[in-house]
Protein: Scavenger mRNA decapping enzyme
Organism: Coniochaeta hoffmannii
Amino acid sequence: MSTTKSETEALVPKFKFERQLNQDQAGRRTSLLGTIDSRPALLILERAPFPTSPDYLTSISASLATLKNLGANDIYHWYIASSGPVANPDEDYSSPFADLKINLIYPCTEQHVKKYSKQGVRFVLETPEIYRDRVRPFMAAKREEGRLNWVFNIIEGRKEQEDVIHRTAYGEDPADEGFLLLPDLNWDRETLEALHLLGIVERRDIWSLRDLRKRHVPWLRHMRDKFLEAATGVYPDIERDQLKLYVHYQPTYYHFHIHIVHVQLEAGATQAVGKAVGLESIIEQLEGMAGDDEAGMDAVTLGYTLGEASELWTEVFEPLKRKSASGTASRPQ
């Protein structure tokens, strides 16, 4: 039997909630079981994309019903906010409900603008030679620019301590065992199945997975266990086998840190192939390497993706591509 558009639209307001069946996509979609006119009904709610209207985008920051700061460090600030009231079934009024997670970078740099702008993506192969001659000097230059100040602020206890959920006493553990655990900026700190934590180590001699060697395998295993113990201690409803650990290459910043996420967190861009490398895979690869304890990840070719606006693409890999193309074109046929 066909129904009119108005009859169809009248169904949703009649939905009577019974229980939530599932929540996925990092909390952006929820499945509800209930009834409509005493018959079972399933209601699946998913947040729509943000409007692109200039009128909406101009007014959104000033029209938030509530805004609560979750933390700040250097130029980085993060909040939860309500875009409008939600009806309260137990009262005769509507109340604000935090439905937005907001990150603010202020003052931002041109590199931040490039990072968050829509851009093409390239897949690159970083050989040991390219790493040694081009990428390692690039890393060193970025560290010398002071881009790690916000990380050192946290490690040394100067900033963001209210957000650290677990840490060893700074400077009291052996230098290679000190660490802290804090929520990732993109986690709402409530949805456990979207849990995303950062494990930041105190030691400063490891910039990225490229610095890892066979002699680091016992340390990596030790830190894996320490991170899992700390995470499940803070969130006892989560068990060890509900967590996975990985590192990024290229990382956003050149100080070794490990991502700890719930296994049900959907794999977005930060967990994609060409970006995330499982900690267990790194350990296995190191163990299987030929050579002595100094054999390491600096001796392998790594493939990963880069945005066309990233400095690593424009300063390293794009010039290499142009040079290679020029050399190929000049060779006799």
Observations:
- The chain is about 25% helix and 30% strand.
